[in-house]
Amino acid sequence: MAIMNIRRGLRKHLLAGALVPSFLFVSHAIAFEAPSIQILLPEQVAAIADTFTSANTNKEYRELLDSRAEAMINTLKGGKDIALTQKSIDDAVQNPPLENAEWLKASGYDFKVKENQQAGIKILAPFWPLPRWQLQRSENTVTIVNLSASPTQQEHAIIDADAIPYLYFLPEALGPKLGAAFLRAYEKGDIGKAAALIKSTEIKTGAAKAHFNYPRPFLIDNNNIRLVADNYVAKDGAPYSASEGSYPSGHTNTGNTDSLLLAQMLPERFLPLVARGAGYGYSRLVLGVHYPLDVIGSRMVSQRNVAHFLNDPDYKKLFDEARDELRAALEKECGTTIAECAKPQGNDADPWTAPEARQFFNFTLTYGLPPSGLTTAEMQVPEGAEALLDALVPNVSPEKRREALKNTALSSGYPLDSQDPETGFWQRINLYEAALAAQQ
User: Fold this and answer.
1) What is the Cα–Cα distance from 179 to 334, expressed in whole angstroms?
2) Which of 77, 237, 351, 398 is 20 to 30 Å apart from 359, CA to CA?
3) Which segments constitute the Phosphatidic acid phosphatase type 2/haloperoxidase domain (predicted)?
4) pTM: predicted TM-score of the whole model, two decimal places
5) Rounded to an integer, what distance in angstroms lies between the CA atom of residue 270 and that of residue 436?
6) CB–CB of 175/349 below 8 Å?
7) pLDDT digits 0-9 by tens, 371-430
């Protein structure tokens, strides 16, 4: 009830244009300039976020959410009737039959983790020069998202958080039919190659967290964050918390990496999967354990990492093999083609395909944080970034895909933007809009 009262109070202040307490002040600046994108306030985004949660009353979508949560909890318990603790959840890993680790190990592929971690740290470096007021705005934004989150958003965020070792957070972006098929195939181990490859492609953020060593929102002096009780997975009522540094977000890195790779394997659901990655990052603000800058930074690095691997011929061979197994298994479960099974099922039953999902994604590009750098710099598409659109538009030339990325990019100057030709410009990529433009 207290949370609902806070949301009503925030709504009254925001929509009436009244003064908001200084600790809740958030910019009304445009988050994205495309003519077709509505300018949203955090309160409006929260209303959209509700449609992705169990607040959605559509029977098919609710069943999919319930199925994935039940399956995840059962896996965490190892099929036993035991109580979960946060430690046991944090220690969980994806094991057979969910993944085919032996296949990946036998390939001998070297992910060069340390090398890619250092590349990520360079991309994240624009954090250091940010002015103090910009860091404060980031803190204010997580506070308003955290305090205005509905109980169903809190539930969704807890399940997202505890799903990090697995792929259980992805089915909801596939729609009721394909999502249910994915869940069945995953549980049977029929997509084990894809599951192993996707999770192994996540370049962990521990090195970057140690490098930047920035405290989490709920650890800042005089913060107003309200940690969310886990009444949904561990079900012990203890507040969900997190350790290590805040910048960048490890969970967001996972959510974006997994969503982007599955979008490459299932381009029929490219846009909802891209939006789902953004939703996974948004969950971290709902829980009050990350700032918008943490989430934006991880989006940048995960896009770079996925593009980097897709441009590696040795990795691409593994990817193609895993993709083919996944698609064959899903067609078997669907009893029809992927194209048929993946068709949007309507805005209620399939909310990640709704127009509002586009608005939601574009908000998460900046979270309403205003520019603090040069706003007139020309966009230079990072080398190899066009690979992110390859599966979606295989018959479109690399040049045209790069053109789509350039023409839909954010303006320069937003937080974490960099004009470094070797490591910069990942912040400006708007993959959702680029995907739409590349298909025209």
Assistant:
1) 10
2) 398
3) 191-310
4) 0.91
5) 10
6) yes
7) 999 999 999 999 999 999 999 999 999 999 999 999 999 999 999 999 898 899 999 999
Q: Measuring CA to CA, which residue among 156, 191, 347 is closest to residue 261?
A: 191
CATH 1.20.144.10, applies to 2-372: yes
The Cα-based distances of 132 to 1, 127, 293, 355 in angstroms read: 34, 11, 13, 35
| pLDDT of res. 163 | 97
Rounded-to-10 torsion of CA 44, 237, 139, 292: -60
**Rounded distance, CA 63 to CA 46, Å?**
22
What pLDDT does 39 receive? 64
Spatial CA neighbour of 288 closest among 215, 206, 201, 218: 218
Residue type, 263: A
Q: Are 343 and 381 a contacting pair, CB within 8 Å?
A: no
Q: Which of helix, strand or coil describes residue 239?
A: strand
Q: What is the dihedral of CA 67, 71, 77, 83, to 10 degrees?
A: -10
Q: Pick from 59, 58, 57, 24: which is nearest to 42 by CA?
A: 24
CA distance 180 to 294: 32
User: For residues 302 and 294, what is the distance between their CA atoms, to the nearest angstrom?
Assistant: 12
Phi, psi of 239 (to 5 degrees): -65, 135
Q: Tell me, what's the pLDDT at 20?
A: 30
Amino acid sitting at position 66: D
List the chain residues with pLDDT less than 50: 1-37
Could you tell me the maximum CA-CA distance found in the chain, to the nearest angstrom? 62
Q: What are phi and psi of 254, to 5 degrees?
A: -65, -50
**Token output for 42:** 């955090």
Burial readout 145-169 (b: 16 or more C-beta within 10 A, e: otherwise): bbbbbbbbbbbbbbbbbbbbbbbbb
Other beta carbons less than 10 A from residue 122's beta carbon? 16
Task: Please report the DSSP string for 371-438 in residue order.
Answer: P-S-S-PPP-PPTTGGGGGTTT-TTS-HHHHHHHHHHTPPPTTSTT----TTT-SGGG--HHHHHHHH
Residues 6+ apart with CB under 8 A from 189: 96, 97, 98, 99, 100
CA distance 48 to 360: 7
Amino acid at 328: A
Instruction: Kindly state the tokens that stand for 59.
Output: 């029977």
Domain extents in the chain: 2-372
pLDDT at 30: 29
C-alpha dihedral, 122 to 126 to 132 to 138, nearest 10°: -90
